[in-house]
Fold this protein.
Amino acid sequence: GTVPPSAYLSDPFSPSSLSDSELSDDDNAEIEPIDEQEIYDLISPISDPEHPLTLGSLSVVNLPDIFLTPTFPERGSSSPLTTLTVLITPTITHCSLATVIGLGVRVRLEQALPPRFRVDVRIKEGTHSTADQVNRQLGDKERVAAALENGTLMGVLRKMLEGCESRAV
Amino acid sequence: MPSASSLPQISHLATLEPSSPSRAWLTAPHPTLPLLATCSSDKTVRIYSLTTFTLLSTITGGHKRSIRTCAWKPNLKGESVLATGSFDASVGIWRHYDNDMNPKPKDVLSGLDFDARDKAIADGGMGENGNADEDEDEEWRFAIVLDGHESEVKSVAWSAGGNLLATCSRDKSVWVWEEVGEDDYETVAVMQEHEGDVKCVAWHPGEELLASASYDDDVRLWREDVDDWGCCGVLRGHGSTVWCVGWEGEVPRVFGDVEVGREDMRGKWVERREGSGSRLMSCSDDLSIRVWRRRPKERVQQSRLSIIRSGSSEENWVEEVQLPKVHSRPIYAVAWSKSGRVVSTGGDGIVAVYEERWRKAGGDAESKDTKALEDGVDRSK
């Protein structure tokens, strides 16, 4: 499986783009709970941009660092929005590719999950020298969207996501 | 405060279709005509009718990457001009003769004629020409491209008079352009004091005073001092990216009635408003919306011999109030309506409307309550 066309990637939340994608079957489906293990299974096969190893095998992504919480806890089941937080642990504290890895995780999740998920990918505290800077870039919708229009970067991401099953949750 | 049951309700009016197949970054209502422009990551701008909620035309072919922003030039008659800003680092100016966009008197008389009027708009004044789809697009003419920014353009804004255009970019700069002739724009200022992406620019409704919001957590104010444009104020307080700034209209309004016996509040409020002028609102990744107010300058007593100009252009702005917390994800946009209400939206898909009310007994005469009225609408980005 490869990454779907960039038109979709640049707008992971648009219902109309979803209907054009492999997610179309899920769009009308009942909301099924998705647990942390399933999230882990989605992102652990992503390859490290430098090594032929997966983020799971390098412990860059770890099951205990995946958190699913209702976006509006006070509304209960009336709001389906779910906030997904994934903390990534770079292999070295000055890893220059931390942003690219984070972007790969974010893209993979937004590509695979229904639009009711709000995805936050951040560096686990104390594991990177410029974590704040990386976190802000990964949380900035405009920077992420612009990055996904960058052909060179998309090439790197496509390669990282090659090992992931294209099938959605 | 009103009880929840007395709050006005917001209901869905229409969905604008056909919509862009990918992210619609921004919508901009025309200043006078019932038109709405939406710009999209599919490199197009779509123009919809706000009377029939149908697509009138699609502007294509100008930008190489996502169109992030657009703005209608104000104060025009007989023609509409739209500025677009793109991730391709360029700004486009587009023109369209209104022709029948301004309804003839007979069209105005009856709401039933709105259809005919929109048809006329769609045809670009070509009358019965059945080939509307092709003609309408041709009616939007690409006028000029403004090059200068080094990376993604995030926001464009026309001054109230329409003669100045401000643009900002991830390259940390704010540019001011002046229209010096037909399709001829000159760069009048390039301001680079921000230390991060500049996310938004907005002009004061009455003065040539520009506000900008940035990734560096600051809001800056800019104006021309003698011959040079420069920063005349820094509004600090936000704890993360400031996504958007919006100005209060020139006719302010506080909702509800002043309590009997507290009528002096109104006079004090009006006096203070006259001293400070339109207030500025900013929203941020830090989940707060802040209202800023200008502290009027003390009249400087000047010696007749003094050749020093009366004070610098420096503005003194203070944070007046923070709006009630409603959002649980970054707040991306905020706007002040002409009637005095405020609307905000963000990554949580909530659209919240606020109004400013007179404080009840026990409150400070100069303070106002704000109250979130209504929310809903999931999924909007």
